[in-house]
Request: fold
Amino acid sequence: MTTANAFGFGILGTGMIANVVATALQAAPSARLAAVASRSHANAETFAGNYAGSRPIEGLDALLAESEVEAVYVAIPTAHKEAAALAAIAAGKHVLVDKPFVDAASVERMASAAAEAGLVFMDATHFVHHPRRDRLRAEVPERVGRPQAAHTVFYTGLADRSNIRFDPALEPMGALGDLGWYCMRAIVEYLRPEGDLIEARAAGNRDPETGALTHCSGLLAWEGGQTATFGSGFQTNAMADLVSLYGEKGVLLLDDFVMNWTNSFARQDPEVRTGFTQRTSDANPKTFAFVETPSQTPQQVLMVEHFRELAESGNQEARAAYARASYQTQSYLDAAWAALT
Reply:
């Protein structure tokens, strides 16, 4: 239940992912959706009608003028995110910005502007807020040792060419940006590469009608000797979001790292346990070790709560850590994109 002094959010954009976060705001006890803005007042009105207590607003300027809005969730196409986020920061609003971004320099500009204004900049990646992330990272030294390599993929099916993901002007990196972001974030969070990136290779496919990138696979290597392979695409008639982490002590596997089977916005099956699997020696599936990491709260709700905590605590170290992870993630995307093009 939302508390009386709940942190007020405004949402810019009315697409699918905006609905996900709006629902999370309703479920988060210390946050609330105060207003939603769109270029079309009709769209904002329709959206707000689904969320009690929210007001429809036409345009970003009007949203930023709302005194009840303390933070803005920017859920618009990638090509326009930075301008909107910088405007929100200039208006004294914290910003939660949907991924991906145009490039790492854009992330740096937004993060620096927020830090200078004493505000929060956070990208809206859900899975890093699930307790599984911290539990896995804590157990890597014992179960994996020093991670030497990672393999991560995120595939799903998308054939609707009217979707903005098929518009390179709005979503320049296509599947690499939309889905590959998660692969790169898993590398940042779990492989935790040492040293500078020294090599990037990538290959992919483009839609013949729109020119949008619909699939991309590649390899990254760092001066510390670690490597990562990745794959992302819209051309698979199944969702597959997998991470494997390799070291001298063993292998850790997550077969639902983006949206866990148990309780995420896309999957809700309480009979499937959330956690990760360890493989050692020549163990077979009967003897794999499964480490359960349950959470009663969906990761998108935890994201909202963590954002609100950052905004209210003023914890500069934690704010900077989120910004660094965003920058690293986008910089690896940039390297893959440069290798592809």
